[in-house]
Amino acid sequence: MDLYEHQARELFARYGVLVPDAEVVDTPRAARLAAQRLGGRVVVKAQVKTGGRGKAGGVKLAVDPAAAELTARQMLGMDIKGHTVRKIMLAQPVGIDDEFYVSYVLDRAAGRFLAIASAEGGMGIEEVAATRPDAVARIPVDPAEGVTPAKAAEIAAAAQLPPETVPVLQQLWQVLVREDALLAEVNPLVRTDDGRILALDGKVTLDDNARFRQARWASEPSDPHTNPLEAAATAKGLNYVKLDGEVGVIGNGAGLVMSTLDVVAGCGARPANFLDIGGGASAQVMADGLAVILSDPAVKSVFVNVFGGITACDAVADGIVQALESVRLTRPLVVRLDGNAAARGRAILDDRAHPLVHQATTMDAAARRAAELADAA
Ligand code: GDP
Ligand code: MN
Question: What are phi and psi of 159, to 5 degrees?
Fold first, then answer.
């Protein structure tokens, strides 16, 4: 889960990283009052979970509370790279002498963390990284050793950061470890004109697998799904992923669903989704799954691939028949039942004799049929 800037800075502060005074508001009127409390002049910052806000007009200086209110009015509701601005943060402006980039990120391939740091931080860091990779230091961090004072000094030296940043490098490491984060990034970390080292921005990605031991985040809703169908499926407890093709795929078990995607692709068609109904495959689950898939207009045919194990195929066939009562089938369904009680399951579907329900006895034949039907649609 990605945190908002204002949440990241709260964490930073907890571990001793200095941040400017700030308040978060969601109305222009509250922005004016907050600006008054913060001393009048403020930086108004859109709270969206995407970078590059500065370049997109999501970071603006307001010279007084009236200007803050006006800026807030313009910024609230604005779209930044597909994210609607619902909250803004007002921060006390600081005079900047120098902007640095520092981050820790999990390096999965190496089984370690990586410290990435540069003395040329700020809004141009991507450009710096692309054109002058030497200006960005990348130092591996052994998770068992962590960022000791010596390691922090090594990172600072490699990136040519001033020695005053060494304590911050250690504090940021504490954020990463103690909060179970996969990424902790500060860009820019600045040296102010009065010589302080301050985090002016923050990005933290928490490890969702550690949610159970981070009581603080338990009540925080996880990131909203970008695809509404995925959200609807998650609400019903289904493991659904939207893909680009035209053949809807339902299977029981992730392994079977993945091979089904391959077989569909092997027939020259493209899967429209990944939907694993798991071991249960009850009538309700089948109805929910079909409802989700059929509400995707891109779907031209649906391939239901079930291997009966603990859940016998006759129960799955009953589930499909019952699902046909509650879901109006608008596109053809190709069902392949195999394994436990396959013959009884197939007989149940034959008896139901729905004009849009087809059967095949092998996975390949079923995939071919589904591909043909999608093609003909
Ligand atoms: P981002 O574009 O989403 O990374 O947003 P940032 O929070 O990093 O802000 C973009 C830029 O605005 C920073 O790189 C700074 O140069 C500048 N900025 C942000 N806050 C302040 C501030 O308090 N004072 C000054 N002078 N510049 C600021
Ligand atoms: Mn930034």
Answer: -95, 0
Q: What is the pLDDT of residue 287?
A: 85
The CA distance from 315 to 348, in Å, is 10
Q: Indicate the angle between helix axes 166-178 and 5-14, nearest 10 degrees.
A: 110
Q: Which residues are catalytic?
A: 101, 185
Candidate CATH numbers 3.30.70.790, 1.10.30.50, 3.30.1490.20, 3.30.260.10; the one for domain 21-91: 3.30.1490.20
Instruction: Find tokens 């470890």 and name the residue.
Output: 177
The pLDDT assigned to 224 comes to 57
Residue identifier of the C-alpha nearest atom 23 of ligand 1: 93
Measure 140 CA to ligand 2 centroid, in angstroms. 23
Outline where the chain has alpha helix (H): 5-14, 28-37, 65-75, 125-131, 149-159, 166-178, 228-235, 254-266, 283-294, 313-326, 342-352, 363-376
CATH 3.30.470.20 fits 96-216, yes or no: yes
Query: At 136, phi and psi to the nearest 5?
Result: -120, 115
Q: Note the Cα 4 to chain centre separation in Å.
A: 13
Q: Which long-range contacts (CB under 8 A, 24 or more apart) does 322-325 make?
A: 322/283, 322/286, 322/287, 323/283, 323/286, 323/287, 323/290, 324/352, 324/354, 324/357
226 has a pLDDT exceeding 70: no
Please report, for the chain, the start and end positions of each structural domain, with discontinuous segments joined by +. Answer: 21-91, 96-216, 228-376
Which tokens is 161 given? 């950061």
Q: How far is the CA of 189 from the centre of ligand 1 (A)?
A: 10
Write the class of the CATH domain 228-376. Answer: alpha beta
CA-closest residue to ligand 1 atom 14: 122
DSSP H or E run through 227: none
At 88-122, the pLDDT tens digits run: 999 999 999 999 999 999 999 999 999 999 999 99
Report how far ligand 1's centroid is from the alpha carbon of 343 (Å): 67
Q: Parallel, antiparallel, or unpaired for β 181-192 and 273-276?
A: unpaired
What is the reported pTM?
Answer: 0.71
Atom number of ligand 1 nearest to Cα 5: 7
